[in-house]
Amino acid sequence: MSSEFELIELFQHIGAEFYKQNGIITGPGDDCAIFDLDTPIVTSVDSSVIDVHFPSNASPQDIGYRAVAVALSDIAAMGCKPIAFSLSVSSQISDEIWYKKLAEGIEDIANKFEISLIGGDLTNGPLNLNAIVYGTPYSEKILMRDSAQVGDLICISSPTGRAKKGLADWNNMESNSKYIQDYLRPLPKIELGKKIVNFASACIDTSDGLLADLKKLLKASKQGAVINLDDIPITIDINDINAGDDYDLCFTVPKSKFDNTFYKIGEVTEGLEIKLTSNKGYDIDINGYEHF
C-alpha cells in the first residue's frame, strides 16, 4: 500500500484549474487554504458514513461523488454558488486502486460545478467522508429558512421518493433501475437555487424528508401551513413524502411569482399549525430521517 502522503497526492489536483475563478490563493499543501473574496462566504458540512449514508458495496466513485453532492445541496438551499470544498476521509482500505477510483468520483462532481478541493485529511478508521463546502451569493440576497410569509405558496421541483426507490432497487440488485442514480449520484439543485433566490421568501433542502424539512422551515419562520397531500408528486406511495435523500429544494414564493414548472403543494398560514388535507384518503403523520 502507498503511504498516507502518496494517497493524499491522488486528490490534490482536483479542481485546481478553478482556483482563480473561485478566489483561491492557496489550495492543498499548506496548513490552511486561503480565499481572497469581496463577498460573504456560506459554508456547511456533511458526514457520509458507511451503511448509514451509502451502502458498503457501492463503488468508490459513487461514494466520493455522493459525499460531496449531498453537502452541496445545502449551498443550493441558500441560493448560492458553490466554489470549493474540503474533504476528510477515514478509511481502513489498503488498496491504492480504490483511492484512485474514489478520487475519480470526487473529480466528477468537482468538474460538474467547477469547484476546487482546497484541503482535507486522511486517517485510519471506519469508512467515513466529511465534506465541508463553501459558496458565495449569486446576488445580494441569501435564502434563509426563517422568512416565509402568510399567503406564500409552498413549492418543490421534483417527485418525492426517487432516492428511496433507488436504494430499494440497489438492494434488490435491479441494476437497470433508473432510480439508482437518484440515490447514489444525486444532483444538487444549484441551478434551481439560482433561479429562485431573488423572489423566493424561504428555502430548505429535503435531505431528511419533505414534510420533516418543511416543518423545520415553518418553525423557523414562526408560521403554519395547509398542505394538500394530493398535490405532492410521489414515486411509489404516499410514504415517499417522508423519505429522505431526495435533495430537492422546498421553498416558499409569493403567489405573484409562482412558476408553473414548480409543484405547488400548499400555502403558508397564520399560527403554528400544519394541516394536512387529502381528497384521496391519504392519512399520514409527519416523519423524517433521524440519526438517533
Structure description:
It is a single chain. This protein is of the alpha+beta class. The chain folds into two domains: 4-137, 60s Ribosomal Protein L30, Chain: A (2-Layer Sandwich); 153-277, PurM-like C-terminal domain (Phosphoribosyl-aminoimidazole Synthetase, Chain A, domain 2, Alpha-Beta Complex), CATH 3.90.650.10. The protein has seven helices and twelve strands. The strands form three sheets. It has a six-stranded mixed beta sheet, sandwiched between helices. A four-stranded mixed beta sheet has the order 3-6-4-5. A two-stranded antiparallel ribbon has the order 1-2. Strand 4, helix 3 (96-113) and strand 5 form a beta-alpha-beta unit. The longest helix has 18 residues, at 60-77. The two termini are 36 Å apart.
